[in-house]
Amino acid sequence: MGNNRGLTLIEVLLSLFILVVTISVFNGCFSVIGRLITANTIRQEIGTIAKNKMEEIKSGYVYIDNNKYYFLDLGEIISFKEQDYNINISTRPLDNYENISCVNVEVEDGKGNIGYNLVRYINLRKIDMDGPNHGE
Q: Do residues 104 and 119 touch, judged by C-beta distance below 8 A?
């Protein structure tokens, strides 16, 4: 019987190969997970911006570049940039409903890779009654 005290060169190389393959697989997984976390963070931020803009619209005003605008004075399509995000707000009246409009808020990251679309139906008459010239 031979001497079995140590490892052969083939056993060491095979162990090293298995270790390198395992590390490569985990390294790839970690980079994918990192990209997914980044994209999810951006989506969450974009969603928050869209929801905040929609709440501004429901109050009757929209803030663009720290300036307050009465929503009904802005027209049907508004496009602007805020915090490196492109924001498009569009409104269209609903057929058969006199004062109800469909309001669409689209927010995209600066590269156009990730977007969020929020649609609500808003009674514009209520906004008009609460507007800047009401009661004068």
A: yes
- Cite the DSSP H helix spans in the chain: 9-59, 124-129
Higher pLDDT, 132 or 74: 74
Q: Are 70 and 60 in contact (CB under 8 A)?
A: yes
Q: Which residues contact 95 (CB under 8 A, 6 or more apart)?
A: none
Between strands 77-82 and 100-109, the pairing is: unpaired
β-sheet with 115-123: strand ranges across: 77-82, 85-93, 100-109, 115-123
Of all residues in the chain, the percent with pLDDT exceeding 70 is 90
- Copy the structure tokens of residue 36: 């997914």
The three-class DSSP label of residue 7 is coil
